[in-house]
Design brief:
The protein is mainly alpha-helical and 255 residues long. The chain has 8 helices and 4 strands, in the order H-H-E-E-H-H-H-H-E-H-H-E. Strand 1 and strand 2 form a beta hairpin. The radius of gyration is 34 Å and the shape is elongated. The chain starts with a helix and ends in a 10-residue tail after the last strand. The N terminus and C terminus are likely disordered.
Length: 255
């Protein structure tokens, strides 16, 4: 949503700075390690290899204390050993416990915002943004709507049509599940007020949802205006006519 773009951009910029910092520090550390190996250790990496192996066994695999303790299970020469849990698994388990305690304290004791609370905050912010948009657009409804002819308005309407309407009415308006929008037959009327009302309220019996919670009145006006431009076009696979013939009158586009 437009309201959150500045915050998102700020977070993205901050994440980029952190990534650059991590990359720079990692590069410096690797270069210093290579210089140490070449000039101090005379390229002899055996001691470092042994150190890394010891650390791995001590803190990761625990192999240095591994004992072959049988559990008296023998099948075809294959025996089962009672090996101890690898240290890495214990670290993961202990870390999960610590994280769980911290999570509980933060969200359930100190009043941190849970996902449901974040959802409510975003919905409230979206409602404020919608009210601002509606206030800027003015009052648009079935009683005062008029067809828009400006290129930018029709382009906006076409964009929303191609994004939301093609699954039912086809890309060229020929109809799929929904009716053909290119002929002169309309189920609920073919004036701009009729088309606007269908977009706004939907047709539950036909499976068309109400779009008034998705689009603003201005966007619905743009969409209705674009739909009317499909009249008389030649779709690739037009659906057969449905409804009644809509008689075009001189002022029909304003009714």
């Amino acid at each position: 949503m437009a309201l959150f773009l500045p915050l998102s951009e700020a977070r993205a910029e901050g994440a980029g700075d952190i990534a650059v910092l991590i990359t720079g520090v990692s590069t410096v550390v690797i270069m210093m390690l290579l210089l140490f190996i070449v000039f101090v250790m005379n390229a002899d990496v055996a001691p470092m290899t042994r150190l890394l192996a010891t650390l791995r066994n001590r803190f990761w695999t625990g192999a240095y204390t591994e004992q072959k303790i049988g559990v008296d299970h023998d099948f075809d020469g294959i025996t089962e050993l009672d090996n101890r849990i690898p240290p890495w698994f214990n670290y993961l388990f202990y870390g999960s416990v610590v994280f769980g305690i911290g999570y509980f304290i933060h969200f359930h004791v100190l009043g941190g915002t849970l996902s449901a609370g974040e959802y409510e905050q975003q919905m409230a912010a979206a409602a404020i943004e919608r009210r601002v948009v509606l206030a800027n657009e003015g009052s648009i409804d079935e009683n005062n709507i008029a067809v828009l002819t400006a290129a930018d308005a029709l382009a906006n309407g076409e964009g929303n049509y191609q994004k939301y309407c093609v699954s039912c009415h086809a890309k060229d308006g020929g109809g799929i599940v929904g009716p053909n929008l290119t002929d002169q037959y309309w189920i609920h009327g073919g004036g701009v007020k009729d088309v606007y009302g269908i977009i706004k309220n939907g047709v539950a019996a036909k499976g068309m949802i109400s779009w008034q919670l998705v689009f603003t009145p201005k966007q619905m006006q743009e969409l209705a205006s674009y739909v009317l431009t499909l009249q008389g076009t030649k779709p690739l696979a037009p659906k057969k006519a449905e409804g009644e013939l809509f008689v075009v009158k001189a002022d029909s586009l304003k009714k």
